[in-house]
C-alpha cells in the first residue's frame, strides 16, 4: 500500500532475490531505477495502444478515449509512476539520465499518438490533447484512488472525505470521453 513513493532498493532486491550491489551496478539510485520502470511503462502503453488501434480506421472520439483508458489502466505501476516522474524523479537524477528518460518517453508518446491518428478521423490536435489529458489525469487521479496508508486510515474514519478515492477507472473514463467529444467543439479540425 502506498505505491512507489514507499519503494526502497532493499525491498526491490529482496523481492527479486538479488543482492543490493547487483542493482547498484545498473542503477545509480532508487530514482534511476524508477525512471527505468517509467520508460518501460511508456513502451508498454505505446504497444498496447498500437495493438488496440491496429486495423481500425473508424475510431470515433469516445472509442479513442476508451482505448486510452483501457490501456493505461492496465499498467498500474506506470499509472503510479506518472505523478512521481513529474514531481520528483526527473529532478533527482543527472541531466543525461533525465535526457534519456525524456527521449524514450517522447518517442513512445509520439508513436501512440500516431497510431490513434491513423485509426481515427480525429484531428492531430484532438489526439494530442486527449493523450496529454490522459497522462495528466492518470497521474493525479491514481494518487487519489490509491492513498497512502495514513490517508487510507483517515478515509476509513471519515468516509465522506474519501468518497471518490475508489472510482479511478470510471472517473477517468467519463472525463476522457467527455473531453474527446468536447474537443471537436472547441479546437479546429486541422
Write out key terms for the chains shown.
globular, HTH_TetR, 73% helix, 9 helices, 190 residues, Tetracycline Repressor, domain 2, mainly alpha, single chain
What does this molecule look like?
The protein has 190 residues and is mainly alpha-helical. It has one domain (29-185): Tetracycline Repressor, domain 2. The protein has helices at residues 9-16, 20-26, 30-53, 61-73, 76-87, 95-119, 124-145, 149-157, 168-186. Helix 3 crosses helix 5 (76-87) and helix 4 (61-73) runs antiparallel to helix 9 (168-186). The longest helix has 25 residues, at 95-119. It is globular. The N and C termini lie far apart (45 Å). The model has no long low-confidence stretch (mean pLDDT 86).
Give a quick summary of the entry.
By secondary structure, the chain is mainly alpha-helical.
* Low-pLDDT stretches: none
Helix content: over 70%
- Backbone shape: globular
The end-to-end distance, rounded to whole angstroms, is 45 Å
Structural class, please?
A: mainly alpha
Number of helices: 9
- Major sheet: none
CATH class: Mainly Alpha
Amino acid at each position: 500500500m502506498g505505491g512507489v513513493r514507499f519503494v526502497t532498493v532493499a525491498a526491490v532486491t529482496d523481492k527479486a532475490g538479488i543482492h543490493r550491489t547487483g542493482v547498484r551496478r545498473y542503477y545509480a539510485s532508487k530514482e534511476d531505477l524508477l525512471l527505468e520502470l517509467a520508460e518501460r511503462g511508456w513502451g508498454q502503453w505505446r504497444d498496447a495502444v498500437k495493438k488496440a488501434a491496429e486495423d481500425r480506421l473508424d475510431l470515433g472520439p469516445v472509442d479513442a478515449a476508451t482505448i486510452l483508458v483501457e490501456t493505461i489502466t492496465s499498467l498500474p505501476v506506470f499509472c503510479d509512476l506518472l505523478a512521481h516522474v513529474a514531481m520528483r524523479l526527473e529532478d533527482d537524477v543527472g541531466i543525461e539520465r533525465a535526457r534519456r528518460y525524456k527521449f524514450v518517453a517522447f518517442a513512445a508518446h509520439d508513436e501512440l499518438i500516431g497510431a490513434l491518428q491513423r485509426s481515427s478521423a480525429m484531428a492531430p490536435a484532438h489526439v494530442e490533447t486527449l493523450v496529454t489529458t490522459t497522462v495528466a489525469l492518470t497521474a493525479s487521479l491514481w494518487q487519489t484512488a490509491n492513498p497512502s496508508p495514513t490517508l487510507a486510515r483517515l478515509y476509513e474514519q471519515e468516509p465522506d472525505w474519501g468518497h471518490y478515492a475508489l472510482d479511478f477507472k470510471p472517473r477517468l473514463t467519463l472525463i476522457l470521453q467527455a473531453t474527446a467529444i468536447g474537443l471537436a467543439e472547441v479546437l479546429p479540425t486541422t
